[in-house]
Design a protein that fits this description.
The chain is built from 15 helices and 22 strands. A hairpin with a 2-residue loop joins strand 1 and strand 2.
């Protein structure tokens, strides 16, 4: 699960974020809609790009106005901030490089295709490109240290954006790449891959004869070109991050990843060549000690596919964070599983301004599911942080055609039924709470999801939407227990709605009993955290 990434003034943060659109940060005025969306989406963090071409329009001359107003706006809006360094790479090309870099093709060499065509991506093996990027990033981090080291509004920085070469080539066939491909694979890379003992890199190395001291193609066969690209991109970005950390090391540096397993699934075509995609992840981990996390962007919907990604990227040396995601129901369901089962430490919906209406006064249908998710996750976030990586945190999620979930807890057995499935609610009253009927979600077929936590003393804490929980003490097989109106026979000691403070302490705001308990313990985004204490039957 790894260390906890996000902190401010010593306090851990579970990140519920939105990301502004790519061009929103060029002016402070343009950002106004994004900040309104951040509030309406119930996000605690804004992710915003900063642009190398705007910060260093002339070589060696820096303009930090953009950083100043973004930090000021974050403080004014009482939000955390994550800056995204759009520099050598943005979605596999060099669009945000300054003109003085783009124009000097001799000094800042482009990657070449096998037939010698220059593409819109810098060579990852060119030191001039790397050093120029690193000098600018170091200047940025120095400025941040000067203006934010005490307030700590900025809680992380992303180094580049979906790096690699999306340029119809898996490799730079120019002079820099040709030199790199002939060099021996570094011993420390082979040592790391061998110690890992699994994964595509290991399997390829074994299949090619477990060679040491040989060049990339001799060591990895056809995969040598992609892995050499990966080593070039990885060491380039790690160098940039290392230079920045010399000035300011209070915040994590991470990268986001354009994932493979889509389109033609070929480097340079289906995803940026050299990126830390699943088949290159182990190599990247071997040579990026200054990157605190390699983070998969996730626009996939199929739960099994997403869980496969979470399983791959949630490692002891790699905390799981999703810097970009959609806000669909599928994304929301996958998020709760990522939190409970893989220790995910946060997520950000991409395109904040697209989730609100034209006047930025309310959330649109497109953003509503995501806004509800953040509302209930913010409520229970201190307990998520406390129990992350343990077996005491459970995801509630309604799969396609799902009627209910059965859960085996340490002290209890539970059934989570979902409000949108009539078959699961026969004989039960929907919306038993008098306050339910005038809510935005009342009567809608919302896909149920939530987080359930079982504390050490047996107390249960529940937050979510569209689901209700029936609980009983755990029993051995064959114990005589009547299923008839079992909710009415549960020995509730207390069912309370309340809030949880930063230390995880619960304060009751409302007591439930009678009808509000007889049909299971329901949750809505604005019911806060529901505390459940049971006694023996």
């Amino acid at each position: 699960m790894g260390k906890w990434l996000f902190q401010s003034k010593g306090k851990k943060i579970f990140l519920t974020g939105v990301q502004a659109h790519n061009s929103s940060a060029y002016t402070a005025e343009e950002m106004e809609t994004a900040w309104k969306a951040c509030h309406l989406m119930n996000a605690n963090t804004m992710e915003v790009p900063i642009y190398w071409d705007k910060i260093e329009p002339e070589e060696g001359k820096f303009d930090f106005e953009m950083i100043d107003y973004l930090i000021a706006q974050a403080r004014e809006n009482k939000k955390h901030l994550v800056l995204l360094w759009f520099a050598s790479w943005k979605n596999g090309n060099m669009r945000y490089c300054p003109l003085w870099v783009k124009k000097d093709k001799e000094r800042f060499r482009r990657a070449l295709t096998i037939d010698g065509v220059a593409v819109a991506s810098l060579s990852p093996h060119n030191e001039e490109c790397r050093n120029a990027d690193a000098r600018a990033f170091r200047a940025v981090m120095k400025h941040i240290a000067e203006i934010d080291s005490e307030e700590q509004t900025l809680i992380a920085i992303q180094v580049e954006n979906e790096p690699g070469m999306l340029a119809r080539t898996p490799f730079d066939f120019g002079p820099d790449g040709q030199k790199a491909i002939k060099e021996p694979v570094p011993a420390e890379v082979i040592d790391f891959i061998e110690k890992e003992g699994k994964g595509n890199e290991y399997e390829t190395w074994v299949a090619c004869g477990k060679k040491r001291g040989e060049a990339w193609v001799e060591t990895f066969g056809k995969r040598g070109y992609d892995l050499c690209s990966a080593y070039g991109v990885a060491t380039y970005i790690d160098y940039v991050a290392a230079e920045g950390k010399k000035e300011y090391d209070k915040i994590p540096c991470y990268i986001n990843i354009w994932m493979d397993l889509q389109l033609w699934d070929q480097p340079g075509l289906g995803y940026p060549a050299g990126a830390p995609v699943s088949r290159n992840l182990v190599l990247w981990k071997s040579c990026t000690p200054h990157l605190d996390a390699l983070c998969p962007d996730n626009y996939f919907s199929v739960m099994s596919q997403v869980m496969g990604i979470y399983d791959k990227y949630s490692r002891e040396d790699n905390p799981l964070f999703t810097p970009e995601s959609g806000s669909s129901v599928a994304n929301c369901l996958n998020m709760v599983r990522g939190i409970a089962e893989y220790g995910m430490q946060g997520l950000a919906y991409f395109g904040a301004e697209s989730y609100v209406n034209e006047d930025a006064t309310e959330v649109t249908e497109r953003g509503q599911e995501g806004a509800w998710n953040y509302q209930f996750l913010n409520n229970i976030a201190p307990l998520i942080i406390k129990y992350s990586g343990t077996d005491r945190i459970h995801a509630l999620y309604q799969e396609e055609f799902g009627l209910e979930m059965q859960l085996k807890l340490k002290n209890y057995e539970a059934i989570c039924s979902f409000d949108s499935n009539p078959a699961a609610n026969l004989g039960r009253i929907r919306g038993t709470d008098l306050r339910w009927y005038n809510k935005k979600y009342a009567g809608k077929n919302i896909r149920g999801r939530g987080i359930l936590i079982e504390a050490e003393d047996g107390t249960l804490y529940l937050a979510g939407i569209g689901c209700r929980l029936t609980v009983r003490m755990a029993h051995d097989e064959g114990f005589p227990y009547s299923p008839i109106v079992e909710e009415r026979h549960v020995n509730w000691h207390c069912v309370q709605e309340g809030v949880v403070d930063e230390e995880g302490n619960f304060t009751c705001k409302r007591v439930r009993s009678g009808d509000e308990c007889d049909h299971g313990v329901f949750v809505t985004p604005d019911s806060g955290v529901v505390k459940i204490v049971l006694g023996e039957e």
